[in-house]
Design brief:
single chain; mainly alpha; three-stranded mixed beta sheet; 26 helices; 64% helix
């Protein structure tokens, strides 16, 4: 009876079961985080409109005619003043005097233990909102992604989630941010997995998708189910036009590489300007303001210009001019330190490039031409794919932004080719190139991170064959014949590694018994053999083994005076790597 009274109630048992169900907990967290981030994304957009009404006297993305009617001094002063405010906030509240964006989320996910500062996320969102609303040629997707990631990381930290679950929750925050900001739930989920998590593991798929849906539902309740651009469906007339679409994809790839290179190069040059760091954005703002006197469409996210290009409202000269000067304005804005993203500017530049290219194709092959609008759509998608390095999610974002799926095959073809150009030129996405500039190279992240996480000491299992320095030639001969890999190590009396004996160092008369007592191991050893230290990572070990092309290598302990600890070979290294890789894959897929 006493045992019956002490038995937990069915409710307690059910609660324990729910709490211990990892997948169910992550699903519930995805719903909550998705809804909260969706609300934050909407507030961010509303904040941009509020500040823009103060800076420019008008809210919304359609502002070109209003800007053209303003006095020139106000057009130039507005982004200049905005630059001063942004510079002050970044310098004062973002300690390293650097703006924040998706690159920081990727770094946190891959090498930062999924930890981010919510405080920095809020300050970064404020600086980005001021940048966009004052007219800087930057996008709003980058700040929203960073804000969503920061909030999700904060929640994961408060709940003390495991590193694996914290990374998944980070992806949930990003997915909800993208889906709510662009009304693109499918693309939001795929963007989080393609760009942030760098994989499509089953364990992460359900929570990320649910968070994306949750964020979209919140956005629909506030702003409705609307797309950013309203365009008519386009249909290509003949498959003979595909070479032209492919050509646009290739051109977009080269332009995307130039775009990313120009931004990063400008950032380096700006750092050398003998002025305070907080003043740099004001210089960029002044330059952008001057450009906008002739091309007011370059200010802000540029949705108005993109919409007009997709509707075929621009002629060749205006398309070409906006392509050039939106490119320059964005490079100046991001290069001089304004806070914001590259996705929206990429759409504008790509749409103008595609429209310009399309008009030329129409002049050459009028009978096969699908129209300038179709080329603008393909151009904006392929340009964005080249810059973001994410052809799948970028394609879907463009489709969900426009509500137009009629050119699916052409858009996919151009996006893949644009990304392929990046790969062939050994370039990565804008975000990964940013991290590379900071000394964080995440190329081939999944495999290299595993090699970095494992130490030589973790896989050291074999002592190898060794002899003392004063061992006779007879003993050397005997031990060498059974040495694995044909390497015999020579150990000093303090157990430190003295050298190694290989066939190359064995005397020609090694089997001459008259030398048995005349030659010792130290006489024929190579005293500078290649070695690894116990603290070296497998990445270092792999590089050494490949460089010197040996079958095995000795391992020493620097803490014990180069004491010989054993040896490893390439097969053991690759076996350990494969086991770690399989374990990580199993974890990510819910095993």
């Amino acid at each position: 009876m006493a045992q019956g009274r002490n038995r937990p109630s069915p409710f307690i048992l059910l609660t324990r079961k729910v709490v211990n169900n990892d997948q169910l907990v992550m699903t519930l967290l995805a719903v909550v985080v998705g809804a909260c981030v969706g609300g934050l994304a909407i507030l961010f957009v509303e904040k941009i409109d509020f500040f823009q009404s103060i800076f420019l006297g008008i809210s919304g993305a359609w502002i070109a005619d209003h800007i053209a009617a303003l006095p020139p001094w106000q057009v130039i002063l507005t982004p200049t003043l905005g630059g001063l405010l942004v510079g002050f906030i970044v310098y004062r509240f973002l300690g390293n005097s650097r703006t924040k964006g998706p690159a920081d989320v990727i770094a946190a996910c891959e090498v930062g233990g999924a930890q981010m500062s919510l405080k920095e996320g809020l300050w970064a969102a404020l600086s980005s909102g001021l940048s966009i609303s004052s007219g800087a040629s930057v996008g709003r997707e980058g700040p929203v992604v960073h804000l969503g990631g920061s909030f999700a990381a904060w929640v994961g930290g408060k709940l003390q989630l495991s590193r694996s679950n914290a990374r998944i929750l980070l992806g949930c925050g990003v997915a909800a941010a993208v889906s709510a900001s662009f009304n693109a739930p499918i693309a939001g989920a795929l963007f989080a997995q393609e760009v942030i998590l760098s994989h499509y593991a089953l364990k992460a798929f359900a929570p990320v998708v649910i968070a994306s849906i949750s964020g979209t539902v919140i956005a629909h309740q506030v702003v409705g189910n609307v797309t950013a651009f309203q365009i008519q469906a386009h249909h290509f007339g003949s498959y003979l036009e595909f070479p032209a679409f492919a050509g646009l994809g290739i051109v977009s790839g080269f332009v995307g590489v130039l775009f990313v290179w120009s931004i990063l190069k400008t950032q380096k040059k700006v750092q050398k300007i003998p002025l305070p760091v907080w003043a740099h954005p004001a210089i960029g703002g002044f330059c952008v303001g001057v450009i906008s006197l002739w091309y007011p469409e370059v200010l802000g996210v540029g949705y108005e210009a993109t919409d007009n290009a997709l509707k075929g409202s621009y002629g060749f000269a205006l398309l070409l001019g906006l392509f050039i000067f939106k490119f320059v304005a964005t490079v100046l804005s991001l290069g001089f330190g304004f806070a914001g993203g590259v996705f929206s500017p990429s759409l504008v530049i790509g749409a103008m490039l595609g429209g310009t290219y399309g008009i030329i194709v129409g002049e050459l092959y009028p009978d096969l031409w699908s129209g300038v609008s179709a080329y603008s759509l393909i151009g904006m998608a392929s340009m964005a794919a080249a810059v973001l390095g994410a052809p799948i999610s970028t394609t879907l974002i463009v489709f969900e932004l426009t509500g137009n799926y009629s050119l699916t095959i052409a858009v996919m073809c151009a996006c893949v080719l644009a990304t392929l150009v990046n790969d062939q030129l050994h370039r990565q996405s804008f975000f990964l190139e940013q991290l590379k500039e900071r000394g964080i190279d995440l190329g081939n992240t999944f495999s290299t991170q595993i090699l970095k996480d494992l130490k030589v000491s973790d896989i050291l299992r074999r002592e190898g064959e060794y002899v003392a320095m004063d061992a006779s030639l007879k003993e050397v001969r005997k031990r060498f014949l059974r040495a694995p890999g044909g390497v015999l190590y020579v150990i000093a009396h303090d157990r430190s590694l003295y050298g190694a004996i290989t066939w190359e160092h064995m005397p020609e008369d090694v089997f001459d018994v008259n030398l048995n007592d005349l030659v010792v191991a130290a006489d024929i050893a190579d005293t500078r053999p290649p070695v690894l230290q116990t603290g070296d990572t497998l990445e270092v070990a792999k590089a050494v083994l490949e460089e010197i092309n040996v079958s095995q290598i000795a391992v020493v302990s620097p803490e014990l005076g180069r004491a010989y600890m054993g040896c490893i070979d390439e097969r053991e290294l690759m076996a350990a790597y494969s086991a770690a890789l399989l374990k990580k894959r199993k974890q990510e897929q819910g095993g």
